[in-house]
Design brief:
CATH superfamily of the largest domain: Histidine kinase-like ATPase, C-terminal domain
Number of domains: 2
Strand content: 15-25%
Shape: elongated
Strand order of the largest sheet: 1-2-3-5-4
Largest sheet: 5 strands, mixed
Order of helices and strands: HHHHEHEEHHEE
CATH architecture of the largest domain: 2-Layer Sandwich
CATH class of the largest domain: Alpha Beta
Distance between the termini: 73 Å
Number of helices: 7
């Protein structure tokens, strides 16, 4: 191959690399856009359930309680059964609201949302778990926080092989380190879960938020670590004299 051919081949390689890089950036941005839109839709439905459905059901229970207080005999028993049904529907609606959008994340931050999710999920399934979480998490991008929360969900929900779970969130000078450690029964299903479309999309979303990702595996134990940066501190606005 002469010098001109080598130069042409090098130029083609460079152009392919640039095109691939641009395509990857566009793909990551598209994934981020779709994930953010999906979260906005989830949040809107959760608000609807909270303000409309749960509110109307709660009002119906109050009216039913007043009527039941004046009823006797079989009618009182029937009204009590209706009240129990309404109570269960309200509980189901609240559970669905939490699944759609973790309100704790908005009001109390990532650490509290993780604690509540792991406590509820692991107690319901009998999974052993350990948490190391700070009291509060400050200064991180809300998108990065919800993406990290969704990753934890994806790595734990509907996983019959999961035996032990450890989640630690430690403050660093430039941000936070989130460590998710999973111990599973058998190693066959773990690679497929890590390569699932949901996890891949969440990884792209996290990286688009500036979060670095690393993972390791030893036998039946797998570890994912996220380094979540702090948002730049905005300069205080100065008031004119």
């Amino acid at each position: 191959m002469n010098k001109r051919s080598r130069a042409r081949e090098a130029a083609l390689t460079d152009s392919r690399n640039v095109a691939g890089s641009e395509s990857g950036a566009v793909g990551a941005e598209l994934v981020r856009h779709l994930q953010v839109r999906d979260e906005a839709q989830r949040s809107a439905i959760a608000r609807l359930l909270h303000h409309d459905v749960s509110g109307m059901l709660a009002a119906a229970r109050m009216d039913l309680s007043r009527i039941s207080g004046r009823a006797e005999g079989e009618l009182r028993e029937q009204l009590d059964r209706v009240d129990q049904i309404l109570e269960q529907v309200i509980k189901d609606a609240r559970r669905e609201m939490q699944r759609l959008h973790p309100a704790l994340l908005d009001h109390f931050g990532l650490a509290m949302a993780i604690r509540h999710y792991v406590d509820e999920a692991c107690r319901a399934t009998g999974i052993q778990y350990k948490l190391e979480l700070p009291e509060a998490v400050e200064g991180i991008d809300p998108q990065a926080a919800i993406a990290a929360y969704r990753l934890l969900e994806s790595l734990t929900a509907d996983d019959a092989a999961l035996q032990e779970l450890g989640v630690a969130l430690h403050a660093r000078r430039d941000g936070y380190l989130l460590r998710i450690q999973r111990v599973v029964d058998g190693s066959r299903s773990e690679p497929e879960r890590m390569k699932s479309a949901d996890v891949r999309a969440l990884r792209l979303w996290l990286e688009a938020c500036g979060v670095s990702w690393s993972e390791s595996r030893a036998g039946d134990c797998s570890i994912v670590e996220l380094r979540i940066p702090r948002e730049p501190v905005k300069p205080a606005e100065t008031q004119g004299g």
